[in-house]
Design brief:
Shape: globular
Number of domains: 2
Bound molecules: NADP nicotinamide-adenine-dinucleotide phosphate
Number of helices: 10
Strand content: 5-15%
Order of helices and strands: EHEHEHHEHEHEHEHEHEEHE
Strand order of the largest sheet: 6-5-4-7-8-9-10
CATH class of the largest domain: Alpha Beta
Distance between the termini: 30 Å
């Protein structure tokens, strides 16, 4: 089964047969699109997640696939903390109060009370490169950090003092839950009605992984009914999210337009890595940051 969070039409009709393709964004690179380019040698993803590329077809065709892991981990972890802090401390409602609706007429000590981030419990789901960078930041906030992934990392427990727990336990006890899994069959709708029901009513969910990791209708219901207190999502299903999506009508959710790695410095480095992958793939050489190495007949 192929998973993609994007709904935009494949770009196959717009371009002639290709030798190499660089994808900047998440337009699906479908089997049909790949079929239009019999000489395609390399696909270079500007990003770490490659769920929008039909890797199985590339494997069958011997097409190299590259991505840009690692370089964006710190930047995406910064954005995770930004979303977490903004939600916990009502930054968007504060902005709306003062600058949009011009409601700030006198100092009111009773408005916009948030919740403490320091000394709270953070649950990291899918602790890999980005999750590890988030854990480092959370430790600086004196947070207790729980993590769940399929393979335990005792070295990281030693390094960062993070605690390995079951997925269910993480959801039950965390004040903040952040998602950092890749989008796969297993992680599609990893967070749905049942999982949201396990979370604290005061909890905040941050999804900076991929939109379909969270069932948006279950999230809407949970936010609307106060099953959880708030959410911040950098990624949606679909992308862009429909402007009439019910989630956008809520004031306890922040929706960002997929900005995780979007800084000048990091995007420039990602572009360089992606170009190195593409040039190597076109020459039939090993990709420096490969998902699939070239294996086409020469
Ligand atoms: P990574 O290093 O591969 O980490 C992913 C982690 O998820 C691994 O530790 C893996 O550990 C865990 N995992 C995989 N399947 C799982 C499952 N079924 N249940 C629980 N844990 C699972 O990847 P990364 O570089 O941190 O990036 C993670 C994802 O973030 C990317 O795939 C991408 O989709 C997303 N991302 C988003 C943005 C953005 O702009 N919003 C930016 C960068 C990345 P185990 O194998 O041990 O389970």
């Amino acid at each position: 089964m192929w998973h993609t969070s994007a709904i935009l039409p494949p770009i196959a009709e717009k371009i002639p047969p290709l030798d190499g393709l660089m994808t900047y964004g998440h337009e699906p690179v479908s089997p049909e699109m790949i079929a239009t380019s019999p000489n395609l040698k390399a696909i270079s993803v500007v990003g770490v997640g490659y769920d929008h590329v039909h890797v199985e077809t590339c494997r069958e065709r011997g097409i190299a696939v590259g991505h840009t892991p690692g370089i964006l981990s710190d930047t995406t972890a910064d954005m995770t903390m930004a979303l977490l802090l903004a939600t916990a401390r009502n930054i968007v409602p504060a902005y709306n109060h003062v600058q949009v609706s011009k409601q700030w007429k006198y100092y009111d000590p009773n408005i916009l009370w948030g919740t403490d981030v320091h000394h709270a419990t953070l649950g990291i789901v899918g602790m890999g490169r980005i999750g590890h960078a988030v854990a480092k930041r959370a430790r600086a906030f004196d947070m207790r950090v729980l993590y769940y992934k399929r393979e335990r990392r005792p070295d990281w427990e030693e390094e960062l003092g993070v605690e390995y727990v079951t997925f269910e336990n993480l959801l039950e006890v965390s004040d903040f839950v952040t998602l950092h899994v890749p989008l796969t069959e297993e992680t599609t709708h990893l967070i749905g009605e049942a999982e949201l029901a396990l979370m604290k009513k005061t909890a905040i969910l941050v999804n900076i992984a991929r939109g379909p990791v969270v069932d948006h209708y279950a999230l809407y219901d949970a936010l609307k009914q106060g099953q959880i207190a708030g959410a911040a999502v950098d990624v949606t299903e679909p992308e862009p999210i429909n402007t009439d999506h019910p989630l956008l009508s809520l004031d306890n959710v922040i929706v960002a337009p997929h900005l995780g790695s979007a800084t000048v410095q990091t995007r420039m480095k990602m572009a360089t890595m992606a170009m190195e992958n593409l040039l190597a793939g076109l020459k039939g050489e090993q990709l420096p940051y490969g998902v699939l190495q070239p294996n086409f007949p020469r």
